[in-house]
Amino acid sequence: MTCPVSSEPEDQLCILKCQHTLSLNNLKLLKQKICPKCREKIVENDIRYLPQSSIYKNLYTKFYKSGHIIPPIKLENSDQIYDSDDSDNSEADLIL
């Protein structure tokens, strides 16, 4: 998710009472504690910090819907999984 002030992706976002978002870094840099979007006064008790897990979950959903992430391939039959440790002359053994 991006900070509306810097337009950069951020991993620490704050949701203000006015429902605007702001990165934690940009919040700390504000000289006057007012929302840069609507100019409402920011009170410390009214700030909600968005956890990284929520941000990553939101990003995963957006990337998945846009086709940047493909779903994992499910095997039809788990018996088809090949275990190379059972082989006496596996490629890894030949290399070593």
Describe this structure in words.
A 3-stranded antiparallel β-sheet has the order 2-1-3. By secondary structure, it is an alpha+beta fold. The chain has a domain at 1-53: Herpes Virus-1, CATH 3.30.40. The chain has helices at residues 24-29, 52-66, 91-95, and strands at residues 13-15, 21-23, 48-50. It starts with 12 loop residues before the first strand and ends with a helix. It has 3 helices and 3 strands; from the N terminus they run ββαβαα.
Low-confidence sequence ranges: none
Mean pLDDT: 76
Order of secondary-structure elements: EEHEHH
Going by helix content, strand content and strand pairing, the class is: alpha+beta
Architecture of one domain in CATH? 2-Layer Sandwich
Record field, number of beta strands: 3
In angstroms, what is the radius of gyration? 24 Å
Q: Any idea what the CATH superfamily of one domain is called?
A: Zinc/RING finger domain, C3HC4 (zinc finger)
Describe the sheet with the most strands: 3 strands, antiparallel
CATH classification, class level of one domain:
Alpha Beta
CATH fold-level assignment of one domain: Herpes Virus-1
Distinct helical segment count = 3
* Residues in β-strands, percent: 5-15%
How far from one another are the termini? 46 Å
Shape estimate? elongated
Helix residue percentage: 25-40%
| Widest sheet: strand ordering | 2-1-3
